[in-house]
């Protein structure tokens, strides 16, 4: 094969790869474009900070949904992150009899449809306590725990064994080696997994439908029903009112920006590696 | 303080594989004992039994006795044994998340020393002991992994010294290093014997001849010959030893 045909082949491949890139970008960009165009008009300080108004009345905002989303995600993270990291340390560092079982369960759980997580918490908790932000957070945790556990486990597994041996051989107890040497070495990967987990649950709607329920007012505590951005988008977008539909676009835009920022955050954290 | 090691009828396995067979030997105080032999003969396993690192591998098993100054290593808490018997590995393995000075005293800190001035002083002391202080005194806060290979290995030796062990095990400490770094480490090892008992695994026979006082030749998990280095290299008693050191196999 001479140089010319090789060059032509090379160029043809570059064109193919570029084409694939464009095809992937079309849906993403058109979605971003559409949501930005329709949503950005709704954004104002009032929109971000005030309560919804009844349909037909002008103004109003999604402040309580933003508050609710932050609370749900923060509570779910507070529940999930410690459990996930501890489970990952157990599977990776203390390969006991339980560890392969936990690994399997985590893999299965990570494929759970999100609506199932919602129904599960609904059946388990709602009859006793009623709808609440806490129940919503628990449903989100069911989705977040496997994601963060798997990401943490992969990061721990990627820590070279000679790092563990170096610490053990210095006379450092196993638990300290796991916590202060291995876990510390895996922190960047775990941080990435945590942010991805947060990005995932902040957009979930289905688990919140029968748990957090929704609320037209400010949330006053974990045991009250709460609004959340995905819930509000769902309710507003399916409503017959124009003003609500317009606000659903605005809320979708906010949600998209949050998830995008989280993903960019992952990139920045991961680049430090 | 330095201590002597006595090994009695040591047997070690990986699963079904019998890697050390009835090894008995003594390592003298303040001396350098070299362990030589072809790849897979059990050299590394032998020293990893001494600080009980062997048993940290799944399926690994040990039988027999190892005495540290007449104290049975296998009756003691492995964590405390490992602080008395330090180890330097084949590849330099400083902790990637720690700076040069943090690496030097990582063992102390992880074992519970909190006092910063104690840690800083110890870091300086051990970095000086390995001849690294003048090279890194302005880079103490850089990551340990930013140093050159030879410097990293000396940092790892410093890290082992900081825990104040009595015995230092070295597993082919120069095999990943260039000749100049190798020379520096050999000089260092030779100096360390004043204060420590040193057991070094090497596949480099010249290295064993240059620095060790006594040499053990291991073959297929058995201790074939053990004696003063000069005698072993000049007048080996066993035919296998003779063939190995003359380079006819291995």
Class of secondary structure makeup of chain B: alpha/beta
Number of helices of chain B: 11
Q: Estimate the helix proportion of chain B, in percent.
A: 25-40%
The average pLDDT value of chain B, as a whole number, equals: 94
The count of strands of chain B amounts to 10
Query: Cα-atom Rg of chain A, whole angstroms?
Result: 23 Å
Radius of gyration of chain B: 18 Å
* CATH superfamily label of the largest domain in chain A: MetI-like
Task: Write a structural description.
The complex is a heterodimer of chains A (273) and B (250). Chain A is an all-alpha fold and 273 residues long. Chain A folds into two domains: 3-42; 62-271, MetI-like (MetI-like fold), CATH 1.10.3720. Chain A is 76% helix and 0% strand. Chain A has helices at residues 3-39, 45-49, 63-93, 97-110, 114-129, 133-157, 161-169, 174-185, 187-202, 206-209, 229-237, 242-271. Chain B is of the alpha/beta class. Helices cover 36% and strands 26% of the residues of chain B. Chain B has eleven helices and ten strands. Chain B has helices spanning 43-50, 78-84, 100-104, 106-110, 116-129, 133-136, 149-162, 179-192, 205-211, 229-234, 239-245; strands at residues 5-14, 17-27, 32-36, 60-68, 71-72, 85-88, 167-171, 197-201, 214-219, 222-228. Chain B has a six-stranded mixed sheet, sandwiched between helices. Chain B has a four-stranded antiparallel sheet with strand order 2-1-4-5, with helices on one face.
């Amino acid at each position: 094969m001479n140089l010319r045909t090789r060059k032509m082949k090379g160029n043809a491949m570059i064109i193919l790869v570029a084409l694939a890139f464009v095809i992937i970008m079309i849906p993403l960009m058109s979605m971003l474009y559409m949501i930005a165009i329709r949503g950005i008009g709704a954004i104002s300080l009032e929109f971000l900070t005030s309560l919804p108004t009844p349909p037909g009345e002008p103004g109003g905002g999604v402040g309580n949904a933003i508050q609710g989303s932050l609370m749900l995600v923060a509570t779910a993270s507070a529940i999930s992150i410690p459990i996930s990291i501890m489970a990952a340390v157990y599977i990776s560092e203390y390969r006991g009899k339980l560890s392969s079982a936990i690994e399997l369960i985590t893999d299965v759980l990570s494929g759970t449809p999100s609506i199932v997580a919602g129904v599960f918490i609904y059946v388990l908790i709602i009859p006793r306590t009623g709808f609440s932000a806490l129940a919503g957070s628990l449903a989100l945790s069911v989705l977040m725990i496997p994601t963060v556990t798997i990401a943490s486990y992969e990061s721990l597994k990627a820590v070279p064994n000679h790092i563990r041996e170096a610490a053990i051989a210095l006379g450092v107890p196993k638990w300290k080696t796991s916590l202060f040497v291995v876990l510390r070495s895996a922190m960047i990967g775990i941080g990435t997994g945590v942010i991805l987990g947060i990005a995932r649950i902040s957009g979930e709607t289905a688990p919140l439908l029968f748990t957090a329920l929704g609320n037209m007012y400010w949330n006053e505590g974990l045991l009250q029903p709460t609004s959340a951005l995905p819930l509000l988008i769902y309710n507003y977008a399916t409503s017959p009112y124009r003003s609500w539909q317009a606000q659903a676009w605005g809320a979708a835009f906010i949600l998209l920006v949050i998830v995008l920022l989280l993903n960019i955050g992952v990139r920045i954290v991961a680049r430090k590696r | 303080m330095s201590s002597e090691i006595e090994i009695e009828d040591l047997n070690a396995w990986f699963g079904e594989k019998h890697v050390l067979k009835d090894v008995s030997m003594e390592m003298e105080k303040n001396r350098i004992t070299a362990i030589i032999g072809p790849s897979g003969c059990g050299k590394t396993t032998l020293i990893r039994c001494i600080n009980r690192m062997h048993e940290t591998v799944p399926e690994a098993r040990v039988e027999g006795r190892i005495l540290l100054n007449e104290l049975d290593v296998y009756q003691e808490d492995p964590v405390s044994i490992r602080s008395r018997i330090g180890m330097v590995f084949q590849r330099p393995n400083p902790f990637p998340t720690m700076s040069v000075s943090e690496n030097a005293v990582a063992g102390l800190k992880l074992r519970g020393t909190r006092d910063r001035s104690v840690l800083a002083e110890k870091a300086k002391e051990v970095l000086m002991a390995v001849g690294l202080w003048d090279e890194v005194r302005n880079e103490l806060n850089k990551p340990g992994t930013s140093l050159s290979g030879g410097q990293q290995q000396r940092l790892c030796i410093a890290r082992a010294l900081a825990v104040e062990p009595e015995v230092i095990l070295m597993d082919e400490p120069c095999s990943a290093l260039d000749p100049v770094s190798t020379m520096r480490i050999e000089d260092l090892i030779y100096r360390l014997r004043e204060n420590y008992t040193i057991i070094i695994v090497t596949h480099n026979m010249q290295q064993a001849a240059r620095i060790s006082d006594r040499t053990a030749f291991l073959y297929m998990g058995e201790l074939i010959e053990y004696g003063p280095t000069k005698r072993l290299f000049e007048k080996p008693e066993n035919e296998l030893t003779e063939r190995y050191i003359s380079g006819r196999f291995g």
